[in-house]
Amino acid sequence: MENIFKKLKKPVNENIYFIKNHKLFKNEILENKINDLDIEANILNIFRVINDYNFEYLKHDFSKCPNSTPGTKSTILFELKKIIFIEKKCHCYAHKFFSKNYLYRDFPNNSLHFNLYKESKNKKDKCLIIKPERNEILRYLKTFCTNISNYKQNPHIIMKGLFVCGPPSVGKTYIMTALANWLAKKNFKIAFANTTSFANELKSNFNTTITNKPSTLNIFKEAEVLFLDDLGNENNNSSWWRDDILFNLLDYRSKANLPTFISSNFNINQIKKIYAIHKEFTDNVQVDRLIKRILTLCEVKILKQIS
Ligand SMILES: [Zn+2]
Fold this sequence. Notes:
Elements: H1 12-20, H2 26-31, H3 36-41, H4 43-54, E1 72-79, E2 82-89, H5 91-98, E3 102-105, H6 135-153, E4 161-165, H7 172-185, E5 190-194, H8 195-205, H9 216-222, E6 225-229, H10 239-255, E7 260-264, H11 268-275, H12 281-297, E8 298-302
Parallel strand pairs: 3-5, 4-7, 4-8, 5-6, 6-7
Antiparallel strand pairs: 1-2
Helix pairs in contact: 9-10, 10-12, 11-12
């Protein structure tokens, strides 16, 4: 990308001409009757806007922010005979700060752009599109988001999460990620994991020496809001996983009244069958108590295939 600031060495008239013909401002300058003297007085700031616009779609970390002021994005607004500059936070700034609130996160940095609501005009910041099949879930989340701020002051309010089930690629992970980002921005400490990766990580840590670092399981137990994505796909039919880990985790969280969100390709009845490992009576008891914890923690919502 060309360094726009090199142009500053060129004669002023040339730069005014360049600005007046730039696609970003051309019409606005005419419509708002901005004169050349005003443009001249603001050349540097206008170049900063062009620079930040040029890099708008470049994915980057805070340490490599290409904007004229790292972490900030300069934009411009025209009014009649008036130029107004507006500084917004660059997406990298938000990521640097709110991503700290993820105690555990296994989704890629790109998904930190997922928003629950339209919060910025940055086209790169995807937000959840209201689709009829998502309405019920989004309504629930809206109430959840309103109530959770009270929950911080009064942790006895029951904050039920969701068990979102539906076929693959209907947007379950997307919705969960968007909500997790919203909560992380509000300073809630979040753990977010794909259930399979979580199970594998616990398995691989099983025999390692004990350190002072809190164990992954403890992070998941204590996180203010927990997201378990894709439950039931972990292909781990051991009672260790079902009873010692999953049940233990969900039991702890339901007793501590800690909001928990689960997504799955399977409905509750299918989940029952998946975790009935030995198909014996004792098994049913274990499965039933697991399901009971899920239903205590979560409201079940079905996300249907988009027709
Ligand atoms: Zn940036």
